[in-house]
Amino acid sequence: MALLDIEGVTRRFGSFAAVDNVTLAVQAGEFFTLLGPSGCGKTTLLRMIAGFDLPDGGRILLNGEDLAGQPPESRPVRTVFQNYALFPHMTVEGNVAFPLQMARVSAGERPARIAAALEDVRLIGFERRYPHELSGGQKQRVAIARALVTHPTMLLLDEPLAALDAKLREELQIELINLQKEVGIAFVYVTHDQTEALALSHRIAVMNQGRVEQLDEPSKIYGFPRTKFVADFIGQCNLFSGPVTANDAGSVTLDVAGIGPVRVATAAPVAVGSPGTIALRPEKIRIAAGAPLDSPDNHYSGTVADLLYMGDVTVYRVQTSGGSRIEALLANSQSGRAKFFEVGDAVEMSWHVDAGHFIAE
Amino acid sequence: MAKRSVRMAKWVVSGPPLVYLLVFFAIPALIMVLASFRSPGEFGGLAPLVDEAGKLDINLDSYVRFVTETVYLQVFIKSAWYAALTTLICLLLAYPLATLIAKSPRKYRDLLLLLVILPFWSNFLIRVYAWMIILGPNAALARLVNGALAWFGVEPVPLLFSAFAVLVCLVYVHLPFMVLPLYANLEKHDQALLDAAQDLGANGWQRFWRITFPLSLPGVYAGAALVFIPALGIFAIPDILGGPNDTLIGNLIKQQFLETRDWPFGSVLSIVLTVAALALAGIAAWVGRRGGGATARA
C-alpha cells in the first residue's frame, strides 16, 4: 500500500475537466513532483489532497483511508503556499508555534519543537523577527518550518520557489533535497519549471490538460519521453515526424519531410507505414564544418540559420537543404570561445541510431 | 531652483487648508481656552477683562466648579458610558455586516456600501425625529413590547424619552462610521492566510480569533474613534429622544452657551471634552501601534 493513493480523481469546472481521471500513488519518503504548464491541473490536484477542493469523481486515500469527509484542518498533511502565507502579525516564533497550539501541544513542549524546526531550515536567531523583516528566501524557510513542526504525514509544496530569483532558487533547491532526506517526510511538489522538477524529484508526473502524460524517474522522463508533449515540455527537443518506411532488427526508419530518412533504435513493434515521431535532444547531435563525420547512422548537411549564445553552450539552428530546421547544441568548453560557426556557415550533422527516442503515435 | 519650486508648490497646495484651520479652528479654540479663565458677564457672555476696580479678570473659578460640583463629573462619566456602549454595539453590528460586504461578489459591493451610507442622504434631524415616531407610545413597536410585557404581568414601559431611545438612535446614526473603516480593512485581507491557518489545523473559530480579528484591529480602532468621539459630544439625540435623566455633556455645554449663558463654564466643559477625546484617540493610536504594528504594514 502506498502512502497516498489517487484513484481516478476528476475535478470539473463547468464542462472543463481541470483534473481528468488521474490515478497515481506516492510512496512514503518520496520526493514526488507534479510537473506541467499552467492550467494543467497540478495545483487543483494539490488543493484536493490538502482538502481545499473536493473531487467530482474518484478517491484520495492516505494510508489507505479515504480523505473525502475530512476538512483541511483535520488532514495530516501540510501545505507550503506559493506566496508563503506567513501571518504578518506574528513573529517567526509565533508563526511556527501556531500549528503546535492548534494541535494542543503543551506550552512546555513547544519551545524545543520550534527550535528543532527552525534548525531544520537554518533560521535559528530569527525567532523575534516579523515576516516583513525577512527576505524572500527566509520567508519560505519559515513557511517550511511552520509546515514541518507538527511532523505531518506528507508535505505539499505549491511552487514554493517561484517567487525567488534564480540564484537563491538553486540554493534552496539543494536545501530542499537535503531537508527532505533528513526529515524523511514524503513531499508532493508542484512546479511548472522542468529543470527544478528534474533536479529535485525521485519521480515526476508530467501533467497536461488534466491528465498524467508520463510518470517516471527524471532521467527516464528526459531520456525516454513517452509522448510528443513530454518530449517538447521537458528541455529542448527536435521532433521529427513521418511515416515508418522500414523496420529491421531493433531500429526503424522514418521518412521525415524536409530532412529525409532518419533511423532510430527502438524495441517497440512498429508496423511499416504507421506514423511516428523521433525525439532528439540538441546535445546528442554532432556538428562540424566541412568534412563528413564518422557516424554512419544519420548524416545530414545544412547551413547555420541562427545561433543563440547562452554562455555555457551555444545553440545552433541549422537549415537543411530540404527546408527543415534542426537544433543542435555545442558546449563552449574552451575559454573565450563564444561560437564555433557563424550564421551562413555550411555544416555537417550526424547522430547515432540510439541518440533519438522513438514515439509511436 | 527645482527644489525651491517644489517647496513653493507644497505651500500653495497646503496653504489654503492651513489658513482655513487656523482661522476657523485654532483661533476659536484659543479664544475658548482664554474664556475658560474668565468670569461670566452679568447678562451673559464674558465680564469685562478689567473691572471698575482695575482688577484683571483671570481666575480658575469655572475649573474649580467642574471639579467640586460632582454632578458635572457624573454627567461626563455618563456620557462616556453612553459613548462606549454605542461604540461596542456598533462594533458588534458592523463587524458581521462589513464581513458580509467584503466577502460578497465584487459587483455587489458598491451597491451594498451605497446602502450603508444611504441614510446620510436625508437630514440628520429628520432621521432623529423619525425615531420619535417609531418609538412613540402609539407606534407598533411600543404596542408589541408592552403587549408582551402585559402578557407576563409587567407594567407597560415608555420606549420614547428614555436611555433606550437615546442608545438606539446613537447606534443608528453612528453605525456607518464603524462599517466603512472595518470594510476597508477586511476587504484587503488575504484569503491565503486563512487557507494557511486552516491547513495548519485551525477551525473556523480559531481562524477568526487568531487571524482575521487581530489583522482587522486597525479598522476596529479607526471605527471606534469615529463613533466614540462624536457620540461623546452629541446633544441633539438626548435632547429629542432622551428623558430627564439623559442629559449628556453635549447638552450641558449647549445649555451653558445658549440658556444659562455662562460662557466660561461652557468653555471648561468643552475643553474637558476635547482633552478627553484627544487622550482616548492617543491611547487608541498607541495601543494600535503596539498591537497592530506588523498588521498595519501587512
Notes on the protein architecture:
Chain A has helices at 42-50, 92-102, 110-120, 136-148, 166-183, 194-200, 218-223, 228-233, and strands at residues 4-13, 16-26, 31-35, 57-62, 65-66, 77-80, 154-158, 186-191, 203-208, 211-216, 238-248, 251-256, 260-265, 275-280, 286-289, 298-309, 313-320, 325-331, 346-351, 357-360. Chain A has 361 residues and is of the alpha+beta class. Chain A has two domains: 4-232, P-loop containing nucleotide triphosphate hydrolases (Rossmann fold); 236-360, OB fold (Dihydrolipoamide Acetyltransferase, E2P). In chain A, the strands form four sheets. In chain A, strands 6-7-8-3-9-10 form a six-stranded mixed β-sheet, with helices on both faces. In chain A, strands 13-12-11-14-20 form a five-stranded antiparallel β-sheet. In chain A, α2 runs parallel beside α4 (136-148) and α3 (110-120) packs across α4. The longest helix of chain A has 18 residues, at 166-183. The mean pLDDT of chain A is 91. Chain B has 298 residues and is mostly helical. Chain B has one domain (66-297): MetI-like fold, CATH 1.10.3720. In chain B, 76% of the residues lie in helices and 0% in strands. Chain B is built from twelve helices and no strands. Chain B has helices at 2-35, 61-68, 70-103, 106-117, 124-135, 140-151, 163-186, 191-199, 204-233, 236-241, 249-259, 263-297. The longest helix of chain B is centred in the last third of the chain and has 35 residues, at 263-297.
Short description:
The complex is a heterodimer of chains A (361) and B (298). Helices cover 22% and strands 36% of the residues of chain A. By secondary structure, chain A is of the alpha+beta class.
